Amino acid sequence: MPDTVPCAKCGRGTLVPSKIRKMPGAVVVLGFLLMIGAVVGLGVGGLAKFGGKWIAAEGQRTPEEVRRSLEAVNVPAPIVSKAMHETEESLTEADLKSLNADQAAAVAKAQVALVAREVDPADVSRFADTLLLGSAIALVVGWILRMKKPGLRCTNCGATSATP
Ligand SMILES: [Zn+2]
After folding, report:
1. Phi, psi of 117 (to 5 degrees)
2. Nearest to 78 by CA among 103, 95, 101
3. How far is the CA of 148 from the centre of ligand 1 (A)?
4. 13 alpha carbon to ligand 1 midpoint, in Å?
5. Element containing residue 151 per DSSP (H, E)
6. Which of 36, 70, 90, 149 is most buried as measured by Cβ atoms within 10 A of its Cβ?
């Protein structure tokens, strides 16, 4: 075959057309890690975006509404006081174990509502946007670093070279 190119590295194999990496191996690994990080970042950013809205909505509830939601499922009064941060005492493991599933869920939501009053939803949203944007950039950069181009690969030793 006239277009057969002998391998310069091993001298035995021949070079055949093949897709080869544009970048050295270490850079390809970096690109791969960037893409994994980007996928995780997109997931966390997306959760923060939706979670932030939910937390903001919980924070809109007044303490009276939170209290009614606890009393609606008959959470015992001493635990309501603790959950509402009306006493110096905080909830204990024994308190939580004494609750049924509905009551425990109501207490958990009450805690979120009280914490949410301290959190600025705009901060959460900004954090989510920054993470989503950074992840999108990392995804593109990672993809570029991992790109392949047409080249030649040795059938014997696997050495690659760019097509001239
Ligand atoms: Zn070779």
Report:
1. -65, -25
2. 95
3. 20
4. 5
5. strand 148-154
6. 70
User: Measured in angstroms, how far is the CA atom of residue 145 from the centroid of ligand 1?
Assistant: 25
Ligand 1 centre to CA of 147 (Å) is 23
Residue with tokens 């990392």: 138
What distance in Å separates the CA atoms of residue 7 and residue 15, rounded to the nearest whole number?
A: 6
Instruction: Quick: pLDDT tens for 35-74.
Output: 999 999 999 999 988 888 888 888 888 889 999 999 999 9
pLDDT at 25 over 70: yes
Confidence of residue 5 (pLDDT cuts 50, 70, 90): confident
Rounded Cα distance between 154 and 5, Å, is 9
Measure 25 CA to ligand 1 centroid, in angstroms.
Answer: 18
Residue 2 has pLDDT above 50, yes or no: no
- How far apart are the C-alpha atoms of 67 and 35, rounded to whole Å? 46
